[in-house]
Write a structure and sequence with these properties.
Length: 183
């Protein structure tokens, strides 16, 4: 079933960030708080200085109120990102990254740069990784085949970016395959 044009629009990056904000992140609370129930679940209790896991949306809210420090995910550090960048630029396949790495990194770097070691270098590495992965996406789409497209380890934001082109290209390829050849 084909979607009507009004439903085919891409998800915006802000919407992807909102979806990613449901992921859990570790925090170090600065205030005590009892277990609190929300629509998405119950979180807490918060007892400083004991770490606990809460959704990113809650962590950013607490961070903005100066009520916690956010512990960055294991992959959000200079060493890991440098290693991934080296793989991206030396290997033909996409390196494995968390599915929503781009959105999570943006939210955490926007809200809690003081909790992330060397945030400017992390931003720079993320930008370089993004550019390397975009180049691979373009290369993969240039080799598009009407029967299969294989781009393993593509992340949510990257899928969202190539979706409009991919849908149009597959439609054209399907039409070309169906048309009888003139000879």
């Amino acid at each position: 079933m084909a979607l009507p044009p009004s439903l085919r629009a891409n998800i915006t990056p802000a919407e992807l960030e909102l979806i990613a904000s449901e992921q859990l992140v570790e925090i170090i609370p600065l205030v005590a708080m009892e277990r609190t129930a929300f629509i998405s679940g119950a979180y807490g209790p918060l007892r400083p200085p004991t770490k606990c896991k809460i959704p990113i949306w809650m962590a950013t809210n607490l961070k903005l109120k100066k009520k916690c420090h956010i512990v960055p995910p294991d992959w959000l550090n200079v060493e890991f990102l440098q290693e991934r960048l080296a793989r991206e630029t030396s290997e033909p396949d996409f390196s494995e990254l968390p599915f929503r790495f781009s959105e999570v990194a943006k939210v955490l770097l926007d809200v809690a740069p003081d909790d992330i070691p060397n945030p400017d270098k992390v931003r720079s590495l993320l930008k370089d990784i993004r550019e390397a992965r975009q180049a691979k996406s373009r290369e993969g789409l240039a080799k598009l085949d009407h029967s299969e497209l294989r781009l393993p380890n593509l992340c949510a934001m990257e899928i969202n970016e190539i979706r409009p082109f991919f849908v149009r290209a597959m439609s054209v390829l399907t039409q070309l395959v169906r048309e009888p050849r003139q000879g």
